[in-house]
């Protein structure tokens, strides 16, 4: 398979590895980007500890909690430019979308867009009107809901809507204390972006895959086979602490884990507390937007 410059660039963007290393990795893996990322990690050539999709799309996220404090919603609505994302009309529309998600039981984005709002129009019709008025394409991308029978759902919006988080806490404890804890945890999630709540939630396939990568890494580093297994388990546990919320170092007090902070709060209020759900939305994550060469774009417009 021919290895193109664009393939090399994509791999380099995702791993920060050298250009020739990326080209070799793609050649060794028949152009498979995911396998090439693993290859570079195994060889210790990937400078990025975790592969991440480039965040390029614009727009806003928004999080909202019901008056009773037991249900929360988080949404993402995309726009083409950051300029439109700062438009008050756009902001108001995003808040309306979140309110609809909170108040209605909708199963997917298509059902959400069909809900009628003020004026008798559907959300999609309202959005179409705004697209015509503002002159830029916009779309409702996704939403999520968390609710509890007993306890509290807490929302946190970071950087004016670049990141929004909702955290659901199951507990018979004092709501004020749960709200404070929920805010702390939501800020933790916004900053540290855990993939899982606890190690019990980790996909066994993820662990098996990471173990294979770490073993290959250790062997390529020339480590003796008889110590590789023990060393790999240590590295794996360290990685799990980074991706699991409860195992992470608490950002407000690095001497304790998030789990310990929750236990301390539970002790203070005399009631057990369980993190029942977490949702974190960051604008544009997983979407790669085409980047234009400005000189080429101007030349194109001038007909050159």
UniProtKB/TrEMBL annotation:
Which key words are in the record? Cytoplasm, Elongation factor, Protein biosynthesis
State where it is primarily located.
cytoplasm
Span list, region Involved in Mg(2+) ion dislocation from EF-Tu: 81-84
Name of the protein in its database record: Elongation factor Ts
GO CC terms for this protein?
A: cytoplasm
Q: Where is the Translation elongation factor EFTs/EF1B dimerisation domain?
A: 72-285
Chain segments annotated as transmembrane:
none
InterPro entries, per database record: EF-Ts_dimer_sf, Transl_elong_EFTs/EF1B, Transl_elong_EFTs/EF1B_dimer, Transl_elong_Ts_CS, UBA-like_sf
The entry's localization annotation reads: Cytoplasm
Protein family membership: Belongs to the EF-Ts family.
Q: Which gene encodes it?
A: tsf
Query: What does it do?
Result: Associates with the EF-Tu.GDP complex and induces the exchange of GDP to GTP. It remains bound to the aminoacyl-tRNA.EF-Tu.GTP complex up to the GTP hydrolysis stage on the ribosome.
GO molecular-function term, one example from the UniProt record: translation elongation factor activity
